[in-house]
UniProtKB/TrEMBL annotation:
Gene3D superfamilies: P-loop containing nucleotide triphosphate hydrolases. GO terms for molecular function: ATP binding; ATP hydrolysis activity; transmembrane transporter activity. One of its GO terms (cellular component) is plasma membrane. InterPro entries: AAA+_ATPase, ABC_transporter-like_ATP-bd, ABC_transporter-like_CS, ABC_transpr_LolD-like, P-loop_NTPase. The keyword Nucleotide-binding applies. It comes from Halovulum marinum. SUPFAM superfamilies: P-loop containing nucleoside triphosphate hydrolases (SSF52540). This is ATP-binding cassette domain-containing protein. Residues 5-249 form the ABC transporter domain. Keywords: ATP-binding, Nucleotide-binding. The keyword ATP-binding applies.
Amino acid sequence: MSAAARIDDLSFAHPGAALPALERVSLSIPSGESVALLGPSGAGKTTLLALLDGRLQGWRGRVSVLGTAFYPDRAPPRPCRPDTGFVFQEFALVERSTVLRNVLNGRLGRMPPLRALSGQASAHDMTVVRAALADCGIADLAERRVDSLSGGQRQRVAIARCLAQEPRLILADEPVSNLDPARAGEILSLLTGAARMRGATALFSSHQPDLARRFAQRIIGMRNGRIVFDVPTSELDEDATADLYRDAGPMSGIGLRAVR
Ligand SMILES: Nc1ncnc2c1ncn2[C@@H]1O[C@H](COP(=O)(O)OP(=O)(O)OP(=O)(O)O)[C@@H](O)[C@H]1O
């Protein structure tokens, strides 16, 4: 199977940071699979996702995403950007705008520049947006303002916006850490199911090994900026997972963020 993303011997330190956030990382994300990134706070999960999203510069090593090589001194070429979608933990929605408008924003990267500037959606854009709303179970919320929605509904909007972009690679940074366990399962089921239906690859980070096991076909464990294991879910070892979080300190708690 071809790789949706490939990283070879990559190291990266955030500007001004004393220690590298990623150290000698090599991995390959198989095309069409759902893959989970596990690891305590500060392990480097967010940094790895930002790298694959083309937002980091100044790294050492080799990176290619969906067959396009990235370079450490420049942003990825514009035409390949809409192929990667990102779902943020904090949703990153326009709160005072409607659900429909937010999901339509996912189409902007697919529109010709002039149409994107004027926000004029084509009939095809609307068809894709309506399908994304329906797949995420929020068609009936289309005209509601985002600031009137619950956390679970907001995350559905964020996923619908990402799907409207028609990405081939979906990156999600702790997409369920703000949700209760039942909602968290629903949202991960939605995210990985929608990716599968579209033949897209999904890579999501999580602090919850049980959810990673349920929804990922492959699990990558990280600690201190390094990959500790990278295995099919069926081969995930309980002890290896426990070791990942052992003595990780108070920063490893679910939902806690590293100090930036
Ligand atoms: N903007 C930044 N500037 C300096 N250091 C940073 C920055 N962002 C992250 N770091 C550091 O890089 C390391 C990796 O952080 P990262 O956020 O990638 O970890 P994480 O595994 O995603 O953690 P969490 O689970 O808390 O989100 C940490 O030591 C963190 O403090």
